[in-house]
């Protein structure tokens, strides 16, 4: 029997289970369904999504992605009345959200959420809700039980705003990982580092994710997975023409896709082997001995840049011939540091800053791993004036 107050929650993953539990705890009649057939300790479940939908006045989707939404809505099409509110909390592409809004008409509420499982439990989500006023009014009691509503004009815009929010989250996780690696390199105790980071710009993230960040990490269940964040960044990359760092770089280990995003901040830094040719290159500059450059570069390497306003492109032999076999007289005052290394399987890019007297250079390297060893395939440089 259909009851306007019955909520069908389709998708009992991390968010769906938390949402269904919260709504039930707030006195709602909730029926849950999930693809795997998993049941719940906290809400009534059914093995048939049509059964769930036909009982409900509001159908809440907590599914992984756009294709999952489409598949589930296709399955329940016959049971879905035209006036049943479909409230979609999933993070999907702007175009997918617009398509669902077109397909489901005025009863569709696109409502991606900011906040994770703990925020659901306290009704602390921030909900970006795009819908016609009547649908929004009808969904209001459920939305208010879950968090604070921020109306947004259009499903596509709500989906896009959610992706941008998660882009900043990906950046914060990356920044946190960089800070933890610097702290490790300085030999600082992890607990003390986390105490201090909690006081700073990433404080909220560190406080929420602290159990995942300790050394060794705790065993808390993942709340928001690396795989889900990677999905969101892939959606943003596909929707936006602006260059976007791949979320794959958050953690290149596919075995960790189900780990919490915080685990990406404790992933090991770049492997030592990829730094070896860069160290040999530094030794070449420090000693003036070109033999080190032959350890650093592939024989086919080209070294290129602008010198005296003209483009130069040296072979490795030509480059080595520039070095006299002894250190520069001002070597003690010179410095070189690696700024960034990004590894993509068997290729990598790196940048280095060299301060040679008054001259400062940025070197950009392309590296390849061949025969089990990393070597510099090419270098381009810029001399700062
Ligand atoms: N977790 C968070 O902190 C968080 C926060 C904000 C937004 N979100 C977004 O909310 C959505 C749900 O996230 P989650 O963390 O709860 O993910 P999750 O734990 O991986 O759960 C995903 C749910 O989708 C179902 N599903 C996946 N593919 C399906 C398909 N093809 N057909 C039918 N059902 C399918 C799964 O069913 P079975 O497991 O039963 O197979 C499961 O119920 C995602 O869009 C996510 O990006 C998550």
From TrEMBL:
Domain 6-phosphogluconate dehydrogenase NADP-binding: 6-148
Entries under SUPFAM superfamilies matching the protein: 6-phosphogluconate dehydrogenase C-terminal domain-like, NAD(P)-binding Rossmann-fold domains, NTF2-like
Domain of life: Bacteria
Signal sequence annotation: none
One Pfam assignment: Lumazine_bd_2
InterPro entries: 6-PGluconate_DH-like_C_sf (IPR008927), 6PGD_dom2 (IPR013328), 6PGDH_NADP-bd (IPR006115), FrzH/put_lumazine-bd (IPR039437), HIBADH-related_NP60_sf (IPR051265), NAD(P)-bd_dom_sf (IPR036291), NTF2-like_dom_sf (IPR032710)
Chain ranges passing through the membrane: none
Protein name (record): Nuclear transport factor 2 family protein
Record organism: Streptomyces synnematoformans
């Amino acid at each position: 029997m259909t009851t306007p107050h019955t909520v069908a929650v389709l998708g009992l993953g991390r968010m769906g289970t938390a949402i269904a539990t919260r709504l039930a705890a707030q006195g709602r009649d909730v029926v849950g369904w999930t693809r795997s057939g998993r049941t719940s300790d906290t809400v009534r479940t059914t093995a048939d999504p049509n059964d769930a939908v036909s009982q409900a006045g509001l159908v809440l989707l907590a599914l992984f992605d756009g294709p999952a939404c489409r598949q589930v809505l296709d399955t329940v099409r016959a049971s879905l009345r035209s006036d049943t509110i479909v409230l979609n909390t999933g993070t999907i592409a702007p175009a997918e959200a617009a398509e669902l809004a077109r397909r489901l008409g005025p009863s569709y509420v696109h409502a991606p959420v900011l906040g994770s499982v703990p925020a659901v439990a306290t009704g602390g989500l921030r909900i970006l809700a795009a819908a016609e006023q009547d649908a929004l009014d009808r969904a209001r009691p459920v939305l208010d039980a879950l968090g604070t509503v921020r109306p947004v004009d259009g499903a596509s815009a709500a989906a896009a705003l959610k992706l941008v929010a998660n882009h900043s989250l990906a950046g914060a996780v990356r920044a946190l990982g960089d800070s933890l690696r610097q702290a490790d390199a300085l030999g600082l105790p992890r607990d003390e580092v986390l105490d201090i980071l909690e006081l700073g710009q990433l404080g909220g993230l560190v406080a929420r994710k602290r159990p995942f960040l300790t050394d060794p990490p705790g065993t808390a269940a993942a709340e928001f997975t690396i795989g889900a964040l990677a999905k969101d960044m892939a959606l943003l990359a596909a929707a936006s023409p602006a260059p976007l760092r791949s979320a794959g770089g958050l953690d290149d280990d596919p075995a960790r896709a189900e780990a919490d995003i915080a685990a990406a901040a404790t992933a090991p830094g770049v492997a030592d082997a990829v730094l070896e040719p860069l160290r040999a290159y530094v030794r070449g500059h420090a000693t003036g001995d070109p033999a080190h450059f032959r350890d650093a570069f592939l024989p086919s390497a080209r070294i290129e840049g602008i010198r005296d306003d003209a483009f130069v492109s040296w072979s490795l032999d030509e480059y080595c011939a520039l070095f006299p076999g002894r250190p520069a007289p001002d070597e003690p005052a010179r410095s070189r540091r690696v700024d960034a290394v990004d590894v993509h399987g068997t290729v990598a890019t790196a940048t280095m800053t060299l301060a040679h007297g008054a001259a400062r250079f940025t070197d950009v390297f392309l590296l390849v791993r061949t025969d089990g060893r990393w070597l510099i395939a090419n270098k381009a440089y810029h001399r700062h004036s």
